[in-house]
Amino acid sequence: MTTYTIISESKIRLDELLRQKLPELTGLELSNSKIRRLIMAGCIRVNGREVRIPSYTVFVKSNVEAFVDKEKILYEKQADDISFEVTEESVLYEDEYLIFINKPAKFPTEKTIVTDRDNLHDAVVRYLWKKNPSLRNPPYVGIMHRLDKDTSGVILFTKKREVNKAIFDMFDSSKLDLNETSEMKYRPVQKTYVAVVKDSVKIKESFTVKNFLGRITSKSAGCKWGEVPESRGGLIAVTEFKVIKRDAGRCYLECHPVTGRTHQIRIHLAGRGTPISGDTLYNGDKAERLFLHAKSLELTHPVTGEKISVSAPCNFS
């Protein structure tokens, strides 16, 4: 990993500045897609702050740092995505306003910078359009939260914009009082996951992890998430864990994320020395998949006020 520093000479878009300067600095031919990928991977800082928006405006004399691994940026990794279409069997709950899907592992939630890559959002749009082919335009599908590509289980989309704010507010953890003794009862959305790790004496029957998480960009870490002090932009993250069973050297955990940070459960378990099986990004043992599954979502319906609970069966618990 090499750090390249650019001092902007004019007001300019971030991606345009990098297109102009990085090829000369690195000695590499960098396509527009590679520039965008670098930005969206969190490998660019402007005046010390991470920026992941290609159209971000960089002002005169701004200090731009680019963290580039030459070998990785030249290597076009082939995605191991599966093919998937939403069917009635994969719809867990649907009404006029909401649709819950049982997402498979190895399938992205939304579009990526690889423009022709299929994803669950597009698959839901296709499903709803097939149900109502008389529509002239694609039906609206709103993304309210995300699951990692390799995580399976319950995910919610909205079907009408009018409920977006209410749903967004439910998932927003910034207003929670995380100093309370019992964290979960203050969470408008109750999220339950199942994770599998190697069994260890380190794992108590129940425990809570609370720290600050953020993007880490360094020579050793590359561009990934990890523990970052609040003073350096880390956001508070809380997860409650409970052992479900121990079997054949494996420990099955029920995980309740109180906050919703990127890779939160994965980092919290890896930070205790018990990474999730299949999570090679965070030093987990190799397996046929990431053993993390979103088992259920519970929330109040934004229109009816009814309490709803939606579950997806877990095939490894």
Can you offer a commentary on this structure?
- The protein is an alpha+beta fold.
- Helices cover 17% and strands 32% of the residues.
- The protein has six helices and 17 strands.
- It has helices spanning 14-26, 32-40, 70-74, 120-131, 164-171, 264-271, and strands spanning 2-7, 12-13, 44-46, 49-50, 57-58, 63-68, 91-94, 98-103, 142-143, 152-158, 190-198, 206-218, 222-227, 235-247, 250-257, 292-300, 307-311.
- The strands form three sheets. Strands 7, 8, 9, 10, 11, 12, 13, 14, 15, 16 and 17 form an eleven-stranded mixed β-sheet that branches. Strands 1-6-3-4 form a four-stranded antiparallel β-sheet. The protein has a two-stranded antiparallel ribbon with strand order 2-5.
- The two termini are 39 Å apart.
User: Residue ranges: pLDDT <50 for 5 or more in a row?
Assistant: none
**Biggest β-sheet description:** 11 strands, mixed
What is the arithmetic mean of pLDDT?
89
Number of strands: 17
The portion of residues assigned to helices is 10-25%
Helix-strand string: EEHHEEEEHEEHEEHEEEEEHEE
Question: Any idea what the shape is?
Answer: globular
Q: Please, how many helices?
A: 6
Instruction: Please indicate the percent range of residues in DSSP E strands (runs of 2 or more).
Output: 25-35%
Evaluate the radius of gyration: 21 Å
- How many angstroms separate the termini? 39 Å
Structural class of the secondary structure composition?
alpha+beta
